[in-house]
Amino acid sequence: MTQAEATRALLAAYEQQRAANRQEEARRAEQVTARDPQVAALLRERAQGLARTLQAACAAPDRAAAIAQAFERRLGEIRDALRGVLAAQGLPPDYLEPVYRCPLCRDTGSVGEPVSRWCGCFRQRLLPLLYSDADMAALAEENFDAFTLDIFPDDPLPGGPLSQRATMARLRDLCLAYAEAFPACEPRNLLFYGPSGLGKTFLMNCIIQRALARGYAAQRTTASKLVEHMRRYHHNGEGAEAYAQLANVPLLAIDDLGAEPMIENVTIVYLLELMGERMAAHRHTLLSTNLPPKKLQEAYSERLTSRLLDTRNTRILQFAGRDVRLWRAASG
Ligand SMILES: [Zn+2]
Fold it and tell me: How far is the CA of 67 from the centre of ligand 1 (A)?
């Protein structure tokens, strides 16, 4: 299931829940009214009161404050009357209040104004769905909670006072701060560069997972898959939704830049197009590559790399040291 599909499926489930809530409210109202018919009028007045009050206030703006006050007072009277009825019927005082499972989002799935994000209840259900996407499956294992520094050698790196472990601690702190501050993190892009086996992909996954866990839409892919998506989109017009998702998702991680097949110049054109769109819309992108910046400049066009490597747009995180997979195997 892709991220877009998972989100859509879950939003549909939330819509059903809200419909079920309205049914439950109607059932309760009927139950209480059956034993006490005056309740129907009170509920009707409560439901229509706001619209009527707004109408009255618009018709007589100079008396709007007094009208609002009178409405507040009347609402209080209705509430007290309903509670009296409920108490007499042995029902809880909030029995005729709006029904919902989650008090934070009232079963809408999102919270926050004006920039909304997914509610905790929504995230809790969305994340397992997302992990069923092949591109996202790694996030179940590769996140900040699972990140351990012990796997990195602690002797000083050649040419510097810091060990690989100390360097990784610094990089982890930077990435964690970025993920916690997202989307208010500057610069917006991070470029992870260094040889394989130093934890670039792992840390990138950590950021994506944390952003998702904080309720933001985020996606990861590899440069090869990305180019394949874009090739299908441009040549056959397929996968418009997948392309729109890559262009619009607030946080995108593109792993292993430079490993994708270079099909003449189209790869560069695709990447330029996507990055151009994302940067113009102030979206955040994480990129990892084995190629040092100079090699990147040779492999891609000046137009792409000059913007990408501009430190106002991108923070460059350099990874150095020994391949931890080999080091772990050797040190047993
Ligand atoms: Zn909620």
Answer: 34
